[in-house]
Structures are given as structure tokens and as C-alpha cells.
TrEMBL record:
SUPFAM superfamilies linked to this entry: Aminoacid dehydrogenase-like, N-terminal domain (SSF53223), NAD(P)-binding Rossmann-fold domains (SSF51735)
Record's subunit section: Homodimer.
Domain of life: Bacteria
Protein name per Swiss-Prot or TrEMBL: Bifunctional protein FolD
Biological process according to GO: L-histidine biosynthetic process; methionine biosynthetic process; purine nucleotide biosynthetic process; tetrahydrofolate interconversion
Catalytic activity: (6R)-5,10-methenyltetrahydrofolate + H2O = (6R)-10-formyltetrahydrofolate + H(+); (6R)-5,10-methylene-5,6,7,8-tetrahydrofolate + NADP(+) = (6R)-5,10-methenyltetrahydrofolate + NADPH
Function as written in the Swiss-Prot or TrEMBL entry: Catalyzes the oxidation of 5,10-methylenetetrahydrofolate to 5,10-methenyltetrahydrofolate and then the hydrolysis of 5,10-methenyltetrahydrofolate to 10-formyltetrahydrofolate.
Segments forming a coiled coil: none
GO molecular function, one term: methylenetetrahydrofolate dehydrogenase (NADP+) activity
Stored PANTHER family: C-1-TETRAHYDROFOLATE SYNTHASE, CYTOPLASMIC, C-1-TETRAHYDROFOLATE SYNTHASE, CYTOPLASMIC-RELATED
Family classification: Belongs to the tetrahydrofolate dehydrogenase/cyclohydrolase family.
Enzyme Commission (EC) number: 1.5.1.5, 3.5.4.9
GO cellular-component term (any): cytosol
Gene behind the chain: folD
């Protein structure tokens, strides 16, 4: 029996409709949420991501502020721009599009964003809040993945969850979110011995490594919830995930497609975080 596909596009659309209503309620009080996206350089993929975020903001009722800087922008100039956005009372969220051009210190830049405007959830204080259970913005992609898992109706408490990948952007915060939901969590990475032995135990499997087709059907527990975070462009132009969809679909209970699974949820969660920041301001 084929897996039930988790339609991230449809779920994200439903979430955005709810956000539109909340934005309208704020507008009635004279408050318009504002999201500033800082893009340094001409990276083609980053340009697409930023345009997608701008369109999503417009459709939801959030004011989008695009800050485009040349690739030769200095560290000092970039940090000055972040400070100015911190001080701008009309900006509720600040996102720095990664990766930054070579020579710029990503950690220093992210650390400058005020935690109350860190809607991407990358600030060390936001990550610390996740570890300790304090209030703070959650990283958008892991937050979106968790929402997709919840939409399946599969309870997380007591389940075996395996996260493949340990990046600061997805792997680590995803593991912490699952742990917070009372799952028993294993994090696998490039040094993990016998990866398949771990993934076959997983009731919940999240793949976030950036390697096309790395997780195959014989590595998946029958009936598992499989969340594919990978977005990989092949030489023939096709976009595929970290999970081999053809072999995984007959085995998994629930499966996210690529594209159309996690990607739309990341933007929806970014909008939700920005709106929450604006509601606090209001």
C-alpha cells in the first residue's frame, strides 16, 4: 500500500489563510507586520528564495522590505545595516539570506539581530531557548516539519524518531523539537556506523543531509512517517529530495514529496513568526 503523501503546499496555504485574518486584525489596529530580508550578492538560488518570500508576504498582508547589497559589501557595512533594521520600529522580523559571500562572518551577523526580531530562529539566544524550553522563535524549517508530522495524526510521545543530519539550521533544532514532544530521538550523521540499522527503527524519520536519494526504501520502517527536507537539483534539472521517493513510497506510512513538502512550510512558518513578533509589538 502506497504511503499517504503529506501535502505541504495545501497545509501551508491553509496556515497562510489563518495568518491573513490575523494580519487584518492587526491592520484594524493600525499595525502592519514588517519583514526585512537581507540579501548579499547575486546567488541565483537565494534570489529565487527571496522573491518567493516577497510574494508570500504580499499575499498574507505582511510588508516586505528587501535589502539587496552587492557581493563586495564589507562586514562593517552589513553590520551597520542590521543595526539600522534593529532600530526600525516598523520592522518586526529580520532574515539574513544564507549563505553569505566569502569573507563575511555569518555568525557575527546573525548574532547582531535582536532576539525579538530573529524570526528565522538562528540567534544563539533563540537556540538556547529551544534547548531550555524557554520562549523564543523556532527555526522555520524544523518548525514546519513538526507541523507536518502533527498533521498526520501520529502521536509523537514515546515514538522512536531518527534525524539524519546535524546542521544548526535543521538537524539539531529538529532533534530538540522532537525531544520536546517526548519522542525518543537519535541523531545520525556522516560518522554514524550502519545508518540503516538506525533508520529502520524509526517511527518518525527526518532526512536533512543534502544528498539525493540517500535514504532508500529498504532503510525505512514499514508505516513510518518520513519527512524529506532535502532539496537537490540534478544535472538533468530535476529537483529531488534526500529520500528515494520511488522505493520509499511503497514502504512509508506518510511521506513528504519534493518539491511540495517541507519547502512551502518553511516560508509559512517564517510568516507566522513575523506575525507573532508584530502581535507582541501591538
Amino acid at each position: 500500500m502506497a504511503a499517504t503523501l503529506i501535502d505541504g503546499k495545501a497545509i501551508a496555504r491553509e496556515i497562510r489563510e489563518g495568518l491573513k485574518a490575523r494580519c487584518a486584525a492587526l491592520a484594524a489596529r493600525g499595525v502592519t507586520p514588517g519583514l526585512a530580508v537581507v540579501l548579499v550578492g547575486e546567488d541565483a538560488a537565494s534570489q529565487i528564495y527571496v522573491r518567493n518570500k516577497e510574494r508570500a508576504c504580499k499575499a498574507t498582508g505582511i510588508r516586505s522590505v528587501a535589502v539587496r547589497l552587492p557581493a563586495d559589501t564589507t562586514q562593517e557595512a552589513l553590520e551597520d545595516k542590521i543595526r539600522a533594521l534593529n532600530d526600525d520600529a516598523t520592522v518586526d522580523g529580520i532574515l539574513v539570506q544564507l549563505p553569505l559571500p566569502a569573507g563575511l562572518d555569518e555568525r557575527r551577523v546573525l548574532a547582531l539581530i535582536r532576539p525579538e526580531k530573529d524570526v528565522d530562529g538562528f540567534h544563539v539566544q533563540s537556540m538556547g531557548a529551544l534547548v531550555t524550553g524557554a520562549a523564543g522563535f523556532l527555526s522555520c524549517t524544523p518548525k514546519g516539519c513538526l507541523e507536518l508530522i502533527r498533521r498526520t495524526g501520529v502521536p509523537l510521545a514515546g515514538k522512536e524518531a531518527v534525524v539524519v543530519g546535524r546542521s544548526n539550521i535543521v538537524g539539531k533544532p529538529m532533534a530538540l523539537l522532537l525531544l520536546r514532544e517526548n519522542a525518543t530521538v537519535t541523531v545520525c550523521h556522516s560518522r554514524t556506523a550502519d545508518l540503516a540499522a538506525h533508520t529502520r527503527r524509526a517511527d518518525i524519520l527526518v532526512a536533512a543531509v543534502g544528498r539525493p536519494g540517500m535514504i532508500t526504501g529498504d532503510m525505512i520502517k514499514p508505516g513510518a512517517v518520513v519527512i524529506d527536507v532535502g532539496i537537490n537539483r540534478l544535472e538533468d534539472g530535476r529537483v529531488v529530495g534526500d529520500v528515494d521517493f520511488a522505493s520509499a513510497e511503497p514502504v512509508a506510512g506518510f511521506l513528504t514529496p519534493v518539491p511540495g513538502g517541507v519547502g512551502p512550510m518553511t516560508i509559512a512558518m517564517l510568516l507566522e513568526n513575523t506575525l507573532e513578533s508584530a502581535e507582541k509589538r501591538a
